[in-house]
TrEMBL record:
Keywords: Kelch repeat, Repeat, Signal. This is Galactose oxidase. PANTHER family: KELCH-LIKE PROTEIN 32 (PTHR45632:SF3), LD33804P (PTHR45632). Gene3D superfamilies: Kelch-type beta propeller (2.120.10.80). It holds the Pfam family Kelch_1. PROSITE patterns: PROKAR_LIPOPROTEIN. It comes from Mucilaginibacter aquariorum. Residues 1-21 form the signal peptide. SUPFAM superfamilies: Galactose oxidase, central domain.
Length: 336
């Protein structure tokens, strides 16, 4: 089984990207016709995250803002409860009220109807797993405690939302890939059909057009590549084409019918900078342009105004002939 001193939460966020950004241009002087300039595709570096370099954070978007919650900093067993908001229009960060939950890294959560639900996770200061769960309202920057997650204390679970429900799957501390559905209107959890894949934690997990796609991750013995579709209406799993390569701990987002998978850790526990693309319509994997920064896992991501944002996380450095983990704070945007 991969050593988990470098195992990092798969920050799995649902990014709904439907179109490229466009800027209207005044009619040209030569032929007096309207032209449209499409925003450049690919990766662009932005202002760094202003806090301590972190890994194992949680990220989400609400309206036209992005949020980064908690995490572990390099060179210490400590963790932070900080919440920073990112304003893409100004490429600027501001600090908000701290996250009150017990787990400050490897948390799971999802956004439903304008609010975000977040919990479980590991606290690096107390060395304890947790099962508390919280609701965040971005309109007034407030946290409200909800009922504890009934599946027990855990870390490294994957999570996503479909419609009015959130879903939480697996954990680093478990060998059973249990699936739980959360109804925020009732603050109620329901156990569903177990995930049949070989990964138990740190998988890809994201929803597209009312279905979820889950795969990769760490198993009891290895890094794996099997990939599955979940239909919540039938509570049914269907095997899909394997991922191009085994991996865990990536960031994922969607554009139309396609899923983009960025970074993570691959075979031989090597950090990745590849971008893989899965087409849900054709059940096929391809590769896109690599991430332009340092290869990494444990990164954070969210979408604002049809553009994906990605950064922080963990990578490695070589010093004195030895390789060490390192936390990062650079931040980027990506237009597929």
């Amino acid at each position: 089984m991969p050593k988990l001193n470098l195992a990092i939460i798969s920050i799995l966020l649902l990014f709904a990207i439907t179109s490229c950004e466009k800027t209207n241009v005044e009619p040209g002087t030569e032929n007096n016709t309207d032209t449209t300039k499409v925003a450049p595709k690919g990766w662009t570096q932005l202002q760094n995250y202003p806090g301590t370099a972190l890994r194992w954070t949680f990220g989400f978007s609400a309206g036209n803002k992005g949020y980064v919650v908690g995490g572990q900093y390099e060179g210490s067993s400590g963790s932070v409860a900080n919440v920073f908001q990112y304003d893409a229009s100004a490429d600027n960060w501001s600090q908000l009220n701290n996250y009150p939950g017990k787990g400050m890294g490897l948390m799971a959560g999802f956004s439903i109807n304008g609010k975000t639900y977040l919990g479980t996770g590991f606290n690096y200061s107390t060395n304890l797993l947790n099962n508390d769960f919280w609701e965040y309202n971005p309109s007034n920057d407030t946290w409200t405690e909800k009922g504890n997650f009934p599946g027990g204390n855990r870390q490294g679970s994957i999570s996503f939302s479909i419609g009015d429900y959130g879903y939480l799957i697996g954990s680093l501390s478990r060998t059973k890939q249990d699936v739980w559905k959360y109804a925020p209107t009732m603050d109620e959890w329901t156990q569903m059909t177990d995930y049949p894949g070989t990964g138990i934690a740190e998988m890809i997990g994201i929803s597209v057009n009312g279905k979820a796609y889950v795969g990769g991750g760490t198993s009891a013995d290895d890094v794996v590549s099997d990939f599955w579709e979940y239909d919540p209406a039938l509570d049914k799993w269907t095997k899909k084409a394997d991922i191009i390569e085994p991996l865990y701990n990536p960031v994922s987002f969607t554009k139309g019918n396609k899923i983009y998978v960025v970074g993570g850790i691959g075979q031989n526990l090597k950090f990745r900078k590849d971008v893989l693309v899965y087409d849900t319509a054709t059940d096929a994997w391809t590769k896109a342009e690599d991430f332009k920064g340092q290869e990494r896992s444990a990164a954070v991501g969210f979408v604002i105004d049809n553009t994906a944002y990605f950064g922080l996380g963990a990578s490695s450095k070589i010093a004195g002939g030895a390789t060490y983990p390192v936390a990062l704070k650079d931040f980027w945007k990506f237009t597929p």
